[in-house]
Design goal:
Layout (H helix, E strand, L loop, with lengths): L2 H11 L4 H81 L1 H19 L10 H16 L4 E9 L2 H8 L1 H18 L6 E6 L2 E7 L3 H18 L13 E9 L6 H17 L5 E2 L8
Parallel strand pairs: 4-5
Antiparallel strand pairs: 1-3, 1-4, 2-3
Amino acid sequence: MNRKAVEDLETQTRGATDAETLALRVEALEREKRDLELALETAVEHGDAVESDLMDLNRRLESEIKERIQAEKKLNMLVSAISQQRQDLEILVKTITEHSDDIDLEWLARYNQAEELSRMDSLTRIPNRRGFDAALEREWRRCARQRRSISVLMCDVDWFKGYNDFYGHQAGDKCLVAVARDIESVCRRPPDLAARYGGEEFAVLLPETGLEGAVAVAEDLQAALGRRNMAHAASPLGRVSISIGVATRISSPSGSPWDMVSEADRRLYAAKRLGRNIVVSTDFGTDL
């Protein structure tokens, strides 16, 4: 019997006879027995549920422990990777810092080489249109400072499509290379520039050169091609020839070199219409 039950029994039996006391004790024991049986029965009935709850709780704890272990592994791997990347970055920064001058010079050399190649024609190895345009703008500004003359020749190989059709494109390429060499040969001063403008069309830039001097250069070019005497079965002349348009301007800051190029181009096509293998240096006949 528990303490409270004993105290209650003592209170009830105080002043009672021995028989009454015994009866009360028996009754108290029977009541406690029923309580114990009820408690035991309840425990048995709910034991399976409690055990199931405990097993479920245990499974959840095991799952959480596994997830935490995996998370810790991933975190350790991430910390290790970040530490390695930091070390690699520090080495890279140190290397760049120690060799920055050499790296700058190397990249500058590569940039200059790439820039130069981008302005060269891969077939003829003379400047392309981009190179010509850059040189034209530069020389126009330079001549404009002292208001000096500047001239442009626009040149086109005569009956070149017929040349390609008759001899083939490889022979056509060789023809363009030969023409480029002859154009280079008449560009005798350092600022003079020969360029392949596109297809069979070439351009010549002649800074500090007036119209008379530019026409003389054009005639020298035609003479050089005449001496080469490259066979051209599709031409009435029987050899490769070239038509040339010439334009000259007095450079000025307010002027545009492209107007001069347009004028030379217009005179070139006048030369084509007038029979080819000629030099046109005025607007006479350009509206034909």
